[in-house]
Amino acid sequence: MKQLIHDIFKKFELTDFRKYQTFDDVDVDMVIDSTRYRISEREDIVSFLAIERDVYAGDTPWTFSHFEHEITINEHATFLTAESAGKIVGFVGARVSPEHQSVHLSNLAVSSNFQKQGIGSTLVKTMAELMRQLGVATLTLEVKRDNLPAQAMYRKLGFATTEILPQYYDNKLDGLWMVKQLQETRK
Ligand SMILES: CC(C)(COP(=O)(O)OP(=O)(O)OC[C@H]1O[C@@H](n2cnc3c(N)ncnc32)[C@H](O)[C@@H]1OP(=O)(O)O)[C@@H](O)C(=O)NCCC(=O)NCCS
C-alpha cells in the first residue's frame, strides 16, 4: 500500500473498514499447504459454530448473531476463513480501533482434526500481514491463562504478554493480554 489506510479513509471519508476489500493491492485469497485462506462470508457461520462445538466441548462461546454482527454489520471488523478440500476448518476474527492504529484478535479456532498442522498460525499470520499492509501498528489479543497451546502459538508468532487480566473471564479465570508490533507506531 502506498498510503496508510488511515490516510485513505480520511481522504475519501470512508467509515466502513471492510472497504479495504475493494483496494487493488489488498487481496486475501491464497492457498498455503493445500489450505485456502480467504475473507469470510455469512454462509460460513454454520461451519464456525460447528468448529466451536468441536473445540469447546459442545459449547459455542459465540452465537450465530455474534459472528453475523462481525462479518456483516460491524464496520470495524473482519474475518478470515481457512478451507481444506472444500471444508471449512478454521477462522480468525479481528476488530480495528476507530482510527485504525491497533487491531484486536476477537476469535480464533481450528477444527480438532486439523490442529497442529500450522493452520492456526497461518490464520494469525495472514491477518497480521493484512493489517500491516493496511498500516495498522499493533495487534493485541487476550487469552485464558490456562490455554497453554494457544499461548505457545502466540509466543512463536512474536506476541509478548504485557498484562495479566485478573478474573477476566466468566469463570473467574485470569486472562493474559498479549501484544505484537506490526510496524513502528506512527507519529
Ligand atoms: C489455538 C489453536 C487455534 C492453534 O491452532 P493450530 O492450527 O493447532 O496451531 P498450529 O498448528 O499453527 O501450532 C503452532 C504452534 O502452537 C503450539 N501449539 C499448538 N497446539 C498445541 C498443543 N495442543 N499443545 C502444545 N502446543 C501447541 C505449538 O508451539 C505449535 O508449534 P509446533 O507445531 O511447531 O509445535 C487451536 O489449538 C484451537 O483452535 N484451540 C481451541 C480454540 C482456542 O483456544 N483458540 C484461541 C483462543 S485465544
Which secondary-structure class do the elements indicate?
alpha+beta
Q: Please summarize the sheet with the most strands.
A: 8 strands, mixed
- Residues in helix, %: 25-40%
Q: Write down how many β-strands occur, each being a DSSP E stretch of 2 or more residues.
A: 8
The CATH architecture term is 3-Layer(aba) Sandwich
pLDDT averaged over residues:
90
What is the topology, as strand order, of the major beta sheet?
1-2-3-4-5-6-8-7
Strand residue percentage? 25-35%
Number of helices, counting only DSSP H or I runs of 4 residues or more: 5
Gap from first CA to last CA? 18 Å
Briefly note the CATH topology name. Answer: Aminopeptidase
- Tell me the overall shape: globular
List ligands, each type once.
coenzyme A
Output the CATH homologous superfamily: Gcn5-related N-acetyltransferase (GNAT)
Radius of gyration, whole Å? 16 Å
CATH C-level: Alpha Beta
Tell me the number of structural domains.
1
Low-confidence stretches: none
The succession of helices and strands, N to C, reads HEEHHEEEHEHEE
